[in-house]
Amino acid sequence: MSRAYNFCAGPATLPESVLRQARDEMLDWQGTGMSVMEMSHRSDEFVAIAETAEQDLRDLAGISGDYAVLFMQGGASSQFATVPLNLLGEKGTADYINTGIWSKKAIAEARRYGEVNVAASSQDNGFTDIPDQAHWRCNPQASYLHYTPNETIGGLEFDFVPDAGSVPLVADMSSSMLSRPLDVSKFGLIYAGAQKNIGPSGLVVVIVRKDLLGHARPETPTMMDYKVTADNGSMYNTPSTYSWYLAGLVFKWLKAQGGVTAIAEINSRKARKLYGFIDQSDFYANPIAPRFRSWMNVPFTLADDALNDAFLQGAEERRLLNLKGHRSVGGMRASIYNAMPEAGVDALIDYMATFEKERG
Ligand code: PMP
């Protein structure tokens, strides 16, 4: 068996050592005679797995006791509704920043529950830049300000945390969580679908300031009420136990790499190498303003679209997989999350150079 380099945007590559450990523990987790998948979520064993994962995430991201950490289901997409249901409150109005496809989805869903003010948008420049915060039209009375720190499809990433004043700042960190250091205390709420930097799909991690709990609208489904989830240790119903366990292994792996500061250095280097190669070439291009280029998702185009299929085929032959860009933007996209080894980026650049020489 040989592992391919998988550049998928999500579900994404996981650390090989994590997969090996999961394999070794598959049939008999630490002498219990059963797989984690077969354990009661109320058992002492699973509760210990769950609590350890939460503590490791708290350590990694520096999450204080002022915040609840929730392990929910339904992916980041259900958070698009869960956030307004819990946070819109009486005021019923929220600010959103529109920087691409995922922001738009969050906005469309929130509009079902209240008034949404798009305080800033990069639609006019084709989502290649982020407007200066001085020009945002924020409502100081808003229930919260929502933004998407990293647009997974467009490859557009904030290099700053917006200043929301006393308005709770809400972030969809699905594709950037744990990729670089983060000051959680600046946020009211952070959510992240797991299937990029955290673990398998099916799980979504929510970090929420405790004073924001308990304000859900009466019609909020019980399963979507943050307070109910927090009060029940994310076990109001049966949680996604195996994903939670796998996330715990990924957190341990990240700690062993030296944590978020150490991985950020590697991520920055991987991204600089790939963008640097794209920029020195006349054959490949990336449209994003350099300051806001994503460290995690690198979209690029070839000078001639007619060569796309040949590029992808050659990549597959070298076991460089899932480089096809999102259907809405075309071209290519290399997702280089925490678990993508630097050697994977080197192999991609090597292939890109060869392809350009032969076909460019
Ligand atoms: N937000 C962002 C930034 C994403 O990248 C994704 C998934 N690619 C989603 C939301 C939706 O996540 P899910 O499929 O877990 O609902």
Task: List the defining traits of the structure above.
360 residues, Aspartate Aminotransferase, domain 2, Aspartate Aminotransferase, domain 1, 7-stranded mixed β-sheet, 9 helices, binds 4'-deoxy-4'-aminopyridoxal-5'-phosphate
Summarize the structure.
The protein is an alpha/beta fold and 360 residues long. It folds into 2 domains: 239 residues, Type I PLP-dependent aspartate aminotransferase-like (Major domain) (Aspartate Aminotransferase, domain 2, 3-Layer(aba) Sandwich), CATH 3.40.640; 102 residues, Aspartate Aminotransferase, domain 1, CATH 3.90.1150. It is built from 9 helices and 14 strands.
Descriptive report:
Helix content is 34%, strand content 16%. α3 crosses α4. The two termini are 33 Å apart. The mean pLDDT is 97. The chain is α/β, with parallel strands linked by helices and 360 residues long. It has two domains: 239 residues, Aspartate Aminotransferase, domain 2; 102 residues, Aspartate Aminotransferase, domain 1 (Alpha-Beta Complex). The chain is built from nine helices and 14 strands. A hairpin with a 4-residue loop joins β6 and β7. The strands form four sheets. Strands 2-10-9-8-5-3-4 form a seven-stranded mixed beta sheet. It binds 4'-deoxy-4'-aminopyridoxal-5'-phosphate. 4'-deoxy-4'-aminopyridoxal-5'-phosphate (PMP) binds next to α3. The site of 4'-deoxy-4'-aminopyridoxal-5'-phosphate has 12 residues, from α3.
